[in-house]
Amino acid sequence: MLPVYHINWLKARARRDRWREEVSLVRHEMLWTTLWFQYQKEIWETQALQSTEPGKEAYASKQVELWSDFTKKAGLMFQGKQMECI
């Protein structure tokens, strides 16, 4: 009967390890997502400053607003979830 318990224990430990890895990846993905939104916002800010045509400047300004909104929403949604421990 001992080998059965040992196998079950090994399976449970493997599931726990996979779960911990998945939690770690999701936390990193939350950070990467927020950083990606900030990066896109900065790109469009540069485009807005360098634009010489009013239409392009307006479009770039709209994109800055959009990416800024994404960054704020992601920050609110992920707040407190990135640093929680198992």
Can you tell me about this structure?
This protein is mainly α. The protein has one domain (2-78). Helices cover 86% and strands 0% of the residues. The protein starts with a helix and ends in an 8-residue tail after the last helix.
How is this fold's topology laid out?
Elements (H helix, E strand, L loop, with lengths): L1 H49 L3 H25 L8
Helix pairs in contact: 1-2
User: What is the molecular shape?
Assistant: rod-shaped
User: Which residues form runs of ≥5 with pLDDT under 50?
Assistant: none
Instruction: Give the end-to-end Cα distance, rounded to a whole number of Å.
Output: 32 Å
Number of strands: 0
Give a quick summary of the entry.
By secondary structure, the chain is mainly alpha-helical. Helices cover 86% and strands 0% of the residues. It has one domain.
Describe this protein with a few key phrases.
86 residues; 2 helices; mainly alpha
